[in-house]
Amino acid sequence: MEKPEEQLAIFSSRPEIIHRYSLKGEKITFDESALKPYRLISDLELGKRVDPKYPSVKKGWRKYRRKIFKMNESRIRYLLLTLLDYERKVPMDNTLEVYCHNGLFSDLLTAKEGYYVVQYKNKLIFASTSTRANQNQLLSYIGVKFEALMKCQPSPRDCSHCKLLLNGEYGRWPFKSVVEVDAFKKTPRGKVYCEMKLCYSSNAKEYAISKLTSNREFLEFLRINVKSFRKKIEKWLFQAYFGRQDILVVGLRDDDFKLICNTELKVIEEIIPFVRQTYPSLYEKFINAPQTVSSSLDTIHRQIKQLQRTETDVFLLDTSFPLNVERCARKFETIIIPEFLEQHPLDPLSSLTESLDKLSVGRFA
Questions:
Q1: Greatest C-alpha distance within the chain
Q2: What whole-number distance in Å separates Cα of residue 267 and Cα of residue 235?
Q3: DSSP 8-state code for residue 159
Q4: What's the rounded Cα separation, in Å, for the pair 152 and 26?
Q5: CA dihedral 212, 213, 219, 224 (to 10 degrees)
Q6: Which residues contact 290 (CB under 8 A, 6 or more apart)?
Q7: Residues 186-231: pLDDT tens digits?
Q8: Residue 162: which H helix or E strand, with range?
Q9: What is this structure's pTM?
């Protein structure tokens, strides 16, 4: 059983929303114009189901063009552009701080992923190493097709989206991060942001789904019938809770890529109690997440301080345990975009040191 102060820490650790951007194709605007409301397909909701029609989440997949990064393309271009726009109101200071996509924090807790890291202007800046080139086109598509169905939109052609800029603090580490938001719901309390997840089960049959009458029963069904469901709900919880998304819209598909059911789950009122009762060790990990992330960032920062010679040094981080940071040959300019450098120019002394290092390497090679 967690202590009251631990509960207080987790429920006071959610970041605040300070800015946002929408991306339509390659055009960025600093608003929520790409964000749309969602609506469940009533025939596929839990409860009394009468002759439901199952839409395909596969239809249109060959026309979809997922963003593939070029080798020397910055993975954090839109994060940095959004930070620059935010700085029009609140200028950047010299506080030691983290800039990243929000998925970094989940990866530090749950996954083995690679990141490029630079420490520039006293900011630890993280960029994914993934180009997405090896991702399965069909499996990448069906998730965004599910989102389109929930938003009554045509089959998606590209990866247009809306992201929120968050401001928060884990332990001694302040951060600014961006998180993608799939949709929203209008409520008496205002706009509530939503994360959408599509999962698969070979047992997603009408005779089984028609017996489910509550979200709790649905979660139990997923626990029993969805492969590696503990890992999935861990990812869902961490992404949604720390990404300021209070609703999870979950869809279930079958072997034929047909959407069999959909429901909405409240993160705080339904997901967290389910995890607490069903997966006690996962709940404890969730409660301790802010401090775990803070300790991980301490480790990363300590290793970088030992290795860094100039502010343009690039490091490679492996998030698997134990955390490891090492120098890499990635060019600084392929991570930090020209617009950001124009606003926050290189320190002349750092540039001089880098030039001398190169000269030294050339002389003694």
A1: 79
A2: 12
A3: -
A4: 23
A5: -20
A6: 9, 10, 13, 170, 171
A7: 999 899 999 999 999 999 999 999 999 999 999 999 999 999 999 9
A8: strand 161-170
A9: 0.91
